[in-house]
Amino acid sequence: METTQNRTAFRTCPLCEAGCGLEISVSPQEQIVRIRGDQQDVFSHGYICPKGSTLKQLHEDPDRLRRPLVKRNGVHVEVSWEEAWQEVERGLTGVIERHGRGALGAYLGNPNAHNLGPQLYSSMMLKSMGTRNIFSASTVDQVPKHVAGGFMFGTAQSIPVPDIDHTDYLLMLGANPYASNGSLCTAPDYPGRLQAIRARGGKVVVVDPRRTKTAQESDEWIAIRPGTDGLFLAALIHVLFTENLVSVEPRIMSLLNGLDEMREAVRPFAPARVAPVTGIAVETIERIARELAGAPTAAVYGRIGVNTVEFGTTNAWLIDAINVLTGNIDARGGAMFTTPATGSATTRGTGGSGKGFQMGRGHSRVSGVAEVLGEYPVAVMAEEISTPGENQIRAMITVAGNPVVSTPHSAQLDAALADLEFMVSLDIYLNETTRHADVILPAPSALEKDHYDIGLLIYAVRNIANYSEPVLARDAEMPEEWETLVRLGAILQGLGTDVDPSVMDEQIVTAMVTSAVTQSSSPVFGRDVDEIITALSRGGRRGTARMLDFLLQTGPYGAAFGAQPDGISLDYLLAHPHGVDLGALEPRIPEMLRTPSGRIELSPPQFIGDLVRLEKSIATHDASQMLLVGRRELKSNNSWMHNIAVLTKGSLACTAQLHPDDAQRIGAATGDEVRITSRVGQIEISVEVTDSVTQGVVSVPHGWGHDMAGTRMEVARRKAGVNSNILSDDKAMDPLSGNSVLSAIPVTVELV
After folding, report:
1. Can you give the pLDDT at residue 648?
2. Which residues does the UniProt record annotate as the domain 4Fe-4S Mo/W bis-MGD-type (predicted)?
């Protein structure tokens, strides 16, 4: 008997870092009827932003790829999966035979952080390549946070999260959560949480060269000259020391190295020296330092705007140093560390000390830039493709990314990709990057695959676990994303196209379980491998669900396959479709430390040394220089969202925002076209005159530029905008982390 009732499914939204719960109504014909916030979700409590309800439009988008594409005579045509795999094998093995494995390269884009398959299986594919030429979106975004946390606390995942639900004072730099929903700080309804700080008598202060929506809704907006955040932060620490406001908690003080070194290193950064450069008055700098020190609890949080500049890593370090020096590290209401359900580098192994953080285990072929997190900075990807010599990249694999729009010196990268011998992309769109691919392998839509935010929940403001089953069934011919990655790995290993991904998956899971039972710190130490694999595979479970179950069962709250009857597992999460709240963040030092000394390294030599470079920047300050900064819109978190019609309507626009004084100086009015020129490129764009940006600043949003030939994103093409990364400089990198400089870019602006 056929049902006439709609069914309800629950899942976590995968479109940004907030992780909001969705309630999805599905008709008997398996059509999405309605998407709204899940009122019972333990984390988001019904909150969603405009993006959350558009999963239906994304799923139904006629431009979303549903069959593989192969380029023939310069045109992409649909083919069968079998034919696509044959082309992949021919192309990749051909390059390996001609040039060796050093000629392979890979790029992983931002959506990988929001998809369970790539989070769990991309490493298998990357290892199968046998190359060091790995790149990702991390080095245009967040790697300074990983490097700072790594050297201070021991691992790349040792990034403290502002405890915004309990703090009395929040200082935010270069962050606009009213638009981004938070970043490396997973918090549904971030705006509501900020409003709650003020409602309970606390204070929110925003430091930004733009009066963002977040700044408008805060207690205080402090306008700063782009790129000078490090000077401001160092001056805050200078005041803390000179006014005897340093107040490190005794528990932390007993584990702290480098206090005296920090005191000496910040001596050159008196407020009077940095004020003319930052544009922030001496009195304001001194007052903010006193407020941080005097608040019952306080947290300093910085993101994109302070990480994508030439002192990005130093900024990230100084922020965490202030949290330490004001007694707010690892303390309720301060900056704290999570205990994620699937575990992390801060929960595995023996607590209290470890190998510590390392980088520079290799250097790029052309520029000699250091490796970080197992990859090279994306800024050198183009030169690694275009520069002849041994291990020149001749074949690329891209997974869910659009670097032609999102990475530096886009025109150079675009030309380099066109020169490759072979390229294969795993993506849902034929976009500005994948148009270069010889083969494009599609993935299921977000509604056709399971979901768990492994990476994002490592940085959540509460310890949460929430698993989502697929809402809709995949087409019979469409493989799961993990299967595609495993098959790519098999081809790269020389095993051909006929390998059953399930067989490879068995090998992966067996190796994972075997490793765990031999580690004394593991909750399954000494257990029988076959027993655990049998339990994991019950009911035919495989792929992402099986691997996630293992991580949950062996995580900090895990059932450990019966050893902890009250522990969690995938079955436990399935029985709780609105998620499981595992509690507020709790102090974790010293257990979470993984530094070789077993102590907090307040003053790593790399960072202390970079303060010399920071001080020298004072003398090179040029107040007349126009500086380019980016911006985000709530409806436009990433470039592929521009192909969803409902998100591109209304106020969403790609304009150059200019302060009225700058507009008057060059003779421009709103609607006029201006030419913006940097060292590497030039764009023409419509002006929006507004006092929401400070004088000397021009702001252009990222992710636009959809007017290239050979793409199939018709909605985006109708509102193409201009690619701001034509202006960003591939040679401008933060030397400590290799992160690209995408903000505070020197430019000239003139009326067209």
Report:
1. 85
2. 6-63
Most distant CA atoms of the chain, gap in Å: 80
By residue count, the chain amounts to 752
Asked if residues 143 and 310 have their Cβ atoms less than 8 Å apart, the reply is no
Exposed e or buried b per residue across 727-751, where buried means at least 16 C-beta atoms within 10 angstroms of its C-beta = bbbbebbbbbbbbbbbbbbbbebee
CA distance linking residue 459 with residue 187, whole number of Å:
9
* Predicted local distance difference test score (pLDDT) of residue 640: 73
The pLDDT of residue 29 = 94
Domains of the chain: 7-60 (3.30.200.210), 76-136+380-453+467-584 (3.40.50.740), 143-350+590-612 (3.40.228.10), 624-751 (2.40.40.20)
Q: Give the H/E segment covering residue 263.
A: helix 259-265
Which parts of the chain have pLDDT scores under 50? none
Residues 746 and 628: their CA atoms lie apart, in Å, by 6
**What integer pLDDT is reported at residue 4 of this predicted model?**
79
Six-digit token pair at 531? 């027993």
Q: What is the pLDDT of residue 430?
A: 97
Using the Cα atoms of residue 60, residue 63, residue 64 and residue 68 in order, give the sign of their dihedral: positive
pTM: 0.96
- Which residues are CB-neighbours of 131 under 8 A, at least 6 positions away? 101, 102, 103, 104, 105, 106, 391
CA dist 285 and 581 (Å) reads: 39
Asked if the peptide bond before residue 577 counts as cis, ω within 30 degrees of 0, the response is no
Task: Return d(Cα 220, Cα 288) in angstroms, integer.
Answer: 11
Q: What is the pLDDT of residue 638?
A: 72
Of 229, 231, 232, 208, the residue nearest 220 (C-alpha): 208
26 CB neighbour count, 10 Å cutoff: 18
Q: Are 129 and 106 in contact (CB under 8 A)?
A: yes
